[in-house]
Write the structure tokens for this entry.
Amino acid sequence: MNEDKGPINKYKGLIMVVDDNGITTKLLCRYLKANGYEAVDAYDGVDCLDKVAKLKVEDKQVNLIITDVMMPIMNGEELVRRIKEKYGNEIPVVMVTALKDTKYQLRAIEVGADDWLEKPIEEKLLISKAKTFTDLSNYRELLTLISNTVNDGNFPNIYKGVAVKSLINKNF
């Protein structure tokens, strides 16, 4: 019996992987795709910002950005600052670094990153963090949808399932 497990299990989320090393982005995207996520790569911070903006125009929500710290043109720290400045907490960001010193991990949090991963990246840890942050992103979007429905004076529609139907139609 093939049972539908609900709207959130249908769509795990869209994750942007940002790194100037093509081998790293391909590997991380492969891990994510193998575990049911949609994955998009970007070469650096500028490329990431452009792709996030284009996806927004297409009405696609980036649920998580995983970015390297050291990249040309725009490094990971500047990317985090700009993402948080433009989108607030809407898009969680996990920074990736080969630097194993605690001060670099704390620095990632100070500039606005939500978490970090150390290279070499273990697939199980990557997927665990992807699940945590994409779930968080999806729940935030649900709360925003419900809040907007309430603020528009359509509170009875929540009870009738309008908010949930809207999410199902977005293929979460």
